């Protein structure tokens, strides 16, 4: 797996705007076939800091993600919410192993209809 | 969810020892009822750096984890592998929401017998 942690520091008055835009992006991203997880977490002692925990199944999946309409909308929407430029660190999985991540969501279309 | 990212920097000649000890700890930790995920990831551009991505279901689960024999064995085993003291950051989940994390592993005992 190809794992990217994206570190985000938003302006204090844009925290809720960022949460909303990023939730929408995450709900769409998790339905991409190349994405196994797309967690969004908020730092307890500084709620203006978030991490996007992105787990890709293949080496080309990050590039495909950046071609999607939902990513590009998110990127443009959050641009002026940043307190400083985003940074990222790339990882590979030690545990769980390749077979232990959730299978591709074949029913993504159905689940999206139900949940939205 | 109560999420802790533990940042580990190991001595360069202890990377494989750390991987082995941490895999054993992760395989046991994921069977704790209070733990939803216990990912171990290794930094791509510096394989001496790891992150333990720990996702706890309840506020008291981290303390219960530290009471387990497997955690205490891991802590003692890796103590002299550290290049510098571990640090950690605490987060709460934005996405997925509380209902979307995997259910408790009721068959933990069975799966452990199969996989070991």
Could you say which structural class the secondary elements and strand pairing of chain A correspond to?
A: alpha+beta
CATH architectural arrangement of chain A: 2-Layer Sandwich
Q: What proportion strand of chain A?
A: 25-35%
Question: In total, how many beta strands of chain A?
Answer: 4
Oligomerization category of the chains in this entry: homodimer
Number of domains of chain A: 1
Annotate the secondary structure layout:
The structure is a homodimer of 116-residue chains.
Chain A: E1 2-9, H1 15-29, E2 35-43, E3 49-56, H2 61-67, H3 69-78, E4 87-95, H4 108-115
Antiparallel strand pairs in A: 1-3, 1-4, 2-3
Helix pairs in contact in A: 1-3
Q: Brief description of this entry?
A:
The structure is a homodimer of 116-residue chains. In chain A, 34% of the residues lie in helices and 29% in strands.
Could you please describe the fold and organization of this structure?
The structure is a homodimer of 116-residue chains. Helix content of chain A is 34%, strand content 29%. With 116 residues, the first copy, chain A, is α+β, with helices and mostly antiparallel strands. The first copy, chain A, has a single domain (2-92), classed as Alpha-Beta Plaits, CATH 3.30.70. In chain A, strands 2-3-1-4 form a 4-stranded antiparallel beta sheet, with helices on one face. β2 (35-43) of chain A pairs antiparallel with β4 of chain B, so a sheet runs across the interface.
